[in-house]
Specification:
By secondary structure, the chain is of the alpha+beta class. The chain contains ten helices and 14 strands. Keywords: ATP-binding, Cell inner membrane, Cell membrane, Coiled coil, Kinase, Membrane, Nucleotide-binding, Phosphoprotein, Transferase, Transmembrane, Transmembrane helix, Two-component regulatory system.
Amino acid sequence: MRLWPRSLMGQMLLAVAAVLLLAQAISAGLLWRAAEARREAAVMNAAAFSLVVRGQPRAEGDAEQPRRIRRDASGRVVRALRIERMPAFAPLPGDVRDDDRTATLRSLIESHGMAVGDLIVVERPLARDPFIEDRPRLRARLLRRDGPDRRMVVAALRQPDEGDWIVARVPIPSPQRGVLSSIVVQTLVIYILLVGLHFLLLRRITRPLAALTARTENFARTQNADGQLAPRGPHDVRRLIAAHNAMEARIAALLDEKDVMLGAIGHDLKTPLAALRVRIESVEDEGERAKMAAGIEDITRSLDDILSLARVGRASDPPERVDLAALTAAVVEEFEDMGDPVALGTTVRAALPVHITWLRRALRNLIANAVRYGGGAEVSLLREGGHVVLRVEDRGPGIPPDRIADMLEPFTRGEASRNRATGGAGLGLTLARAIAEQHGGELVLANREQGGLRAEIRLPAG
């Protein structure tokens, strides 16, 4: 499964969502820590207030000291229970002295000018405290909200030169409810607003870019400048589309000029060649006449190859869906009818939209090369992965590995002559490669382990 999207919009939205999630997680952590710090501070202040103010003995007639209100992070009142005085105090089994709270409480008490002799601070389950156990109604009231898991801080103070201990008990408020849910709701709202806004902005950018990509792919396939895109989207994207339209029009104009020029060259050369073909009929020496006719025919075929190579990719007709197995068998049959040693190997059913005339010519060129240099050819049609492969194999000498890439260039041949009887002008493989690329595929040459050359036209199956 692909986790990282391929499109620009998907990657941008995923990046924004990830950064927003990280920021919200950090914010939630900080808020939670702040709430816990306020809750702890409220507990410690309530304990200190009880020990300092309410724990002092009152003279007869003194009014009871007012209770200062301490609130936790949620705004709930944190109040210590009634002060208890006892001659001795010891932690219960299972209690653990809390050194951090002890230091904090000592600092708070001393800041109010009260001397501290011994100070013990422990945390225990509220239901296990003897003071609570002896008061069923108080116990039921305190446990009603948070259940038996609620805990309390017990702080015992003995001042210097005093024999009794002053014991304060502060029930610890439960963590604030709804903090997590509020953060989740807040995150969802931000996601909807921020990610939604980014989606609208990115769609305004990516839609014209997607249309421009499709237009570029279509122009690369057809070289037809009709139906150019109207500039739309942000200013930068509009400039890009306008520049592409201008470039596309210029390329189309250059291609049209090239076609006109090649057509004129072809006409200007073929006309005198045809006249020469007529004139050589007056040559009395039959051998000389045959040589002259072969030379004219060689020039005409080379000219046809050059013009064909220049026209590849400028097909005026759309591709037609054809059964490649039938097309391959028909081309092989043509060579068999001429007596060439060409055999049809394994074929599979495969139907693709192709330019039939061009693909047939590419296959003919490969078979002709195999017959000329390898003494025969075996032609197959296979499926390999996501490709349909037209394969032509021979048992000839092959091509030196360092020259395989050069053989696909124009006017490059395995031997030095330009005589068509020994190999022609060296445009057959170049033309086959151009036709394969016109169909979105490629021409691959490789030497066989058992000897000979393998030429493959690999076309995308989709």
